[in-house]
Amino acid sequence: MAFDLYAGSLSVSVEHYEEAIFGFVDSDKHRQLSRMKDSYYREPGFSPEQSNDLVHELISLLPVVEKNRETKYLVPLLNKLLVFLA
What we know:
This protein has 86 residues and is an alpha+beta fold. It has one domain (3-85). Helices cover 45% and strands 12% of the residues. A hairpin with a 2-residue loop joins strand 1 and strand 2. Helix 2 (48-67) packs antiparallel against helix 3. It is globular. The N and C termini lie far apart (24 Å). 13% of the residues are buried.
């Protein structure tokens, strides 16, 4: 289920082992992450406003992912997505 996101000449990859990030998605709290998960293979496009919302959703996940020893490996993914979307 790995995929790449593109914005002009920039790109970022989500690898198979990083798909666990979607396990944290709460569709009420993380509307854009939920949208990304649901449209994984349908080339999701994000407006600037949606990207901004996605950044805030990722920021809200950082403490949750960081504090769990089993999911801490996802922190670099969150960081690279934040840089990409910023």
